[in-house]
Write a structure and sequence with these properties.
The chain is mainly alpha-helical. Helix content is 61%, strand content 0%. It folds into two domains: 42 residues; 45 residues, no CATH class. It has two helices and no strands. The chain is rod-shaped. The longest helix has 39 residues.
């Protein structure tokens, strides 16, 4: 009976150790995801209040609209290369 008890305690300790490692790894991954999200939103511009002209307009159409909008508000030297993704 003591052997079974000791074996059970040993098994529980191994499970606890593995669970701790998994938990630490999950925290590392969560920090990585947070950092990636922070970086990805660093250069975003969100334009609100514009009517949708077409439900599925192409990225090219949206990009051209953005170029026209930026030009009309007085920004200079904005090119297609300056827009990473438009949707």
């Amino acid at each position: 009976m003591y052997k079974l008890h000791n074996k059970t305690l040993q098994d529980l300790q191994q499970v606890k150790s593995r669970l701790l490692k998994i938990s630490e790894r999950c925290e590392e991954i969560a920090k990585f995801v947070d950092n990636a999200e922070d970086y990805s939103y660093q250069y975003n511009v969100k334009i609100m209040g514009l009517p949708e002209t077409m439900p599925y307009e192409s990225a090219t159409t949206t990009t051209n609209f953005c170029l026209k909008l930026f030009s009309e508000i007085g920004t200079k030297d904005i090119t297609l290369r300056d827009i990473d993704i438009a949707h």
